[in-house]
Design a protein that fits this description.
mainly alpha, single chain, 291 residues, 11 helices
Length: 291
């Protein structure tokens, strides 16, 4: 037996991982059994029901837009009208997300300089950071229900403002971290030349952090599109309200059209936003090489 073999360390025991896995499975099973109102007997029916509903949604997508759906109160209604209404409300959701993102960017940009450790004293940045954390912790839907709907009523402005206020917290945190990551040498060089606080920010900080900050704004716009669809459920504008009503009424053909519009528009906006962010961060030459 060689010396290397004699001193080989023992492998770590596997029983703690096995016990932890079995404990986790037990907790999940106990939690499931404790749900008295759960209708577990319906679980085997789900695959068939999902296929049935998916088939009805697919019928709505594949039917000629000039055809008339059955069982509707308006005999002149066509599948094309459903497509147009879905596109119109999805456009409203995109507009809500864009306005909310602009509000968030407009207010978070100056506040982030008051929250960054390299541009603001401790006594100023602590309350600004607490403000960012507080509004970021409240979901958009709660902001809409508790604050915006009583202020603006049941209209799209309530949804846009809820998205905007929540975006201030998220964009503010990302922007202040971006400010703190700038190269300090240009700032020191400008300060050595006798520049004021604002001149240092304008000449040495903003040129370094602005491209990545704009990329954050575009990414936040993608996130806000999904949030705007959810806000519609509480009548804060957008496609969510109609989608909720259609699915609750089991109008699966119309629901399929609306889901298709949401997915297509979201993918298009995501791809456009990703291309713009790549162009901003890496320049035109890198974009051409990647293409």
């Amino acid at each position: 037996m060689t010396e290397a073999t004699a001193t080989r360390p023992k492998p770590p025991p596997k029983w703690p991982y096995t016990v932890a896995g079995l404990t986790l499975i037990g907790i999940v099973l106990i939690a499931g059994w404790s749900l008295d109102d759960a209708k577990w007997e319906r679980l085997p029916q789900f695959p068939g029901e999902i296929l049935q509903y998916a088939g009805q949604m697919l019928d709505g997508l594949l039917t000629w837009p000039g055809a008339h759906p059955e069982g509707q109160a308006d005999p002149e209604l066509t599948y094309g009208d459903w497509w147009l209404q879905s596109l119109k409300l999805m456009g409203e959701s995109v507009a809500l997300a864009w306005i909310g993102t602009c509000v968030g960017a407009l207010f978070s940009f100056p506040l982030a300089f008051l929250a960054a450790s390299n541009t603001s004293p401790l006594v100023v940045r602590v309350p600004v950071r607490l403000f960012f954390n507080a509004i970021r912790a409240v979901p958009e839907i709660l902001l809409a229900v508790i604050v915006m709907l009583p202020l603006f009523g049941l209209n799209p402005m309530a949804g846009a403002m809820a998205i905007g206020v929540h975006s201030i917290g998220s964009l503010g945190k990302l922007t202040l971290e971006n400010i703190e990551a700038v190269d300090p040498r240009p700032v020191e060089a400008v300060a050595a030349a006798g520049a004021s606080w604002w001149q240092r920010i304008r000449a040495a900080v903003i040129p370094q952090m602005l491209p990545e900050t704009v990329a954050f704004w575009l990414y936040r716009f993608e996130v806000n599109i999904r949030a705007s669809a959810i806000l519609g459920v509480v009548s804060a504008g957008g496609i969510g309200a109609l989608l909720n009503r259609v699915l609750r009424g089991r109008e699966w053909e119309w629901g399929g059209i609306m889901l298709a519009v949401i997915i297509i528009v979201t993918i298009l906006v995501d791809q456009l936003s990703a291309a713009l962010r790549h162009r901003i961060l890496h320049g035109a030459e890198a974009t051409a090489v990647a293409a």
